[in-house]
Amino acid sequence: MSGIAYYQRGFGLKEAIGPALKADYHSRIVDRLKASDHRVEISGLTFLLAREFGFCYGVDRAVEYAYETRHRFPDRTIHLTGEIIHNPHVNARLREMGIRFLRESDGGGPGLEAVGPEDVVILPAFGVTVGEMEMLRARGCILVDTTCGSVLNVWKNVDRFSAAGFTALIHGKYSHEETRATASRTGQHPGGRYLVVRDRDETGLVCDTIRMQGDASLFLGRFAKACSPGFDPDVDLGRIGVANQTTMLSSESLEIQEMVRLALRDRYGEAELPQRFRAFDTICSATQDRQDAVLEMIGRGPDLVVVIGGYNSSNTTNLAAIASRSVPTYHIEDVGCLDGPGLIRHKLFGAASETSTRDWLPDGPVTIGLTAGASTPNNKIGEVVAAIATLRGAAFPV
Predict the structure, then answer these.
(1) How many Å apart are CA 82 and CA 123, to the nearest integer?
(2) Is 178 an annotated catalytic residue?
(3) In angstroms, rounded to a whole number, what is the distance separating the alpha carbons of residues 244 and 246?
(4) Residue 3: which pLDDT band, with cuts at 50, 70 and 90?
């Protein structure tokens, strides 16, 4: 990054910004749950908190660096390329601190053109595309890079795929900031190609095409926005390296990997696989830990599960998907979704918008499982617990 000021390790101001972070995100209720073996009973309610939940290391780091940046450059214009993480409250707090967003979640915003050479730009935990990085370097601004280490690991694997002539098949959401940044890596290599698949159904269409059983026009229509320009399925599906957005459902990523392997084997034979298929498990450890913790929590017998976190948070959505297989599950964004006695607004897995459910909290003794996505701060978890206790006329003990 010669020629510009580039920071990737913060500014050593953790002690200085610590009180502000604690004031903004700490929860005594969450502390009490953790100290009580993640289980507290009150007024007929039993709260079970997953053993892994909430802010992960990468999110902690990104938020800390944003606070450090504001502290380090109090008089500079500071921008974020987009949401630093997928939590509305954290992003709102950064706006209150005077940090400007170049791109909003709805696609609006002033864009990179608004950046001046004296400005500071924070790169989010998801990373930015190769093209965006080049544009920012050309602006001559100060860059503070909070890209998560797990994302960087995916980039390294995609770089290897592309350099070796493999198409990078990415399990993810093609519009997600992380996936767009990952896909852009392929363009650094001659003939680099990418294809993004959302789920098993889309992977099935890819596998049919590999086996020469699919319609090429149907394929290109389905993946027009999710593949490299000029993508030729007859050529570019002959050698595939599988990677994934770090926050996807781990079990599904592994199934997709196996589906692609079998399709290539059927087309080219077992002996050809080493030259035609590569895969690495690039789900981040924090995502996996939170998914495993939901399964462990369900094993402790909750009657229902409340999942707390942004609706546009992939890892939060996948926690809700896991829990909903076993028990009634309510994915809520925050305490505001507890909309009066007996009514909860929540989002069903796969749904485009919120729904409302009445009488969601049964009378009598009930055990409530709780978890939160890796972008959900503890204070938002604590607010939900306190509000649920209030529905029973109780105050949560701290």
Answers:
(1) 8
(2) yes
(3) 6
(4) low
Confidence band for 265, pLDDT divided at 50, 70 and 90: very high
What is the CATH code for 58-147? 3.40.50.11270
Q: Which CATH number applies to 150-283: 3.40.440.10, 3.40.50.720, 2.60.40.1220, 3.40.1010.20?
A: 3.40.1010.20
Give CATH 3.40.1010.20 domain extents, the chain: 14-56+286-391, 150-283
Of the residues 68, 83, 132, 178, which is catalytic? 178
For the segment 129-150, the average pLDDT, to the nearest whole number, is 97
The span from the CA of 308 to the CA of 344, in Å, is 13
CA separation, residue 233 to residues 214, 217, 225 (Å): 10, 10, 14
- Whether the model clears a pTM of 0.85, i.e. scores above it, the answer is yes
What is the rounded average pLDDT of the residues 216-224? Answer: 90
Q: Lowest-confidence range among 98-107, 122-131, 183-192?
A: 98-107
CA 319/CA 329 separation, integer angstroms: 10
